[in-house]
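Recap from last week: sequence in, structure out.
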Amino acid sequence: MVRVTAKVKPLTTGVENFSIQFDNIQSESCDLIISWDKSMVSLPIKTNVNDRIMASIEESMKSDKPAYFQSAFYYLENGKDLKQAEEWFSKAVEAQPNAFWIRYQQARTLAKLGKKAQAKEAALKSKELAAAAKNQDYVTLNNKLISSIK
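Predicted structure tokens:
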């Protein structure tokens, strides 16, 4: 059982049915909104997802089948060590050389590291593989990435 104390806020218009919703959703927090009649309560919910994911990545890297792509993608999207992400993307590409989605994320990482020539090369290969797989979305994503690399 969980008990919390919260201030009840008056609403200018009534809510006919008891309502529960999530608002202000972030990666590690959100607000639980409960409303009914002319009253509303907002309860903040916080969690430490990052520590759990980092522990999971650490365990994965010790296994005989590390989750290189997922780990590298988490690092890329969450401002972690891009050099480590680059290494893991390279290993993911070795394991799945025709996976255009992996090469695209590898190209994004290389571009963020300022390795322009390598980024273009990875994006061009990703584009070629995506075209062969008839995935126009990734062809478009790669075109945008290539044009953004100066």
